[in-house]
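Hey, can you fold this one?
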Amino acid sequence: MPDANGECANVRALIRKSRDSGRQETRFQAFCELTQKLLSLTVMADGQRVGLDRSWIGDNRTRLLVGRSHDSELNTIRLRDDRFLRVTMTLRITSNDRFAVPRSSFQYQETEGDQSEIFRYDYLRAQKDEHPRAHLNIHGRLDHDVLGDRKPLQDVHFPTGRIPIEGVIRLLLVQFEVPPATPEEIWMPVLTTSEAAFREICEQPLSGPDHLGTAAAG
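Sure. Predicted structure:
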C-alpha cells in the first residue's frame, strides 16, 4: 500500500523536476509521470496510462499530454467505474524557460467514443471567440426551456475558475463516486499537495473574453 508522506514527497519531486531548468524532455516527462501518479492513485483503472505526443507538433518547446487508450485518436483512459476520461493538455516551455499548460481539456464520458460526454472542463489561454477561456460544458438530460432560439443547455459555456486535473479527479471521487484506487488518507493529501503547487503559478482567467490580452503565467 502506498504511503501518504512518501507519495506526497514523490509528487513534490516531480513538480520540482518539471519546473527546474534543464533538458526539456526531462521536464515534460516529469509532468507526465506526475499526471500518471495522480490518476493511478485515484480514479484510473489498472493498466491505463497517459503519455506524450509530438507527432503533429513542429515546435521543440511543446508537447501534448494525452490519455493512451487502444485508439490513439480518442485520448481517453478507462476509469474505475468503467466510464472514461478524455485527457488532453498542451505542455510548453516558454521563451523565459517557464513550464506552462496553455490549454487543457478533461471530458468525463459514458463510453470511449466522443458522443457520450457527461461534462467537460476546458481551458484555452488564447481563446479567440466570445466564450470564457476557462469554462464547463454539462451534458445529459438538459431539457429546461430557459434559452432563446431553441439553444440546448449543453451548448452553454459556464465560466469557471481554472480547474486543474486535481480538481477533476476530486470531483469524480467525491461527487460521481468513482471507486478510488487508494484510501482517502492517501489520495486526499496527494491531490492537495499537487494542486497547491499548481495554484502558486497558474493564471486565473476572467469570466469572459480578455480584451486586454492574456497573461504569461503557468
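Residues 4-201 form one domain. Let me know if you want another pass with a different chain boundary.
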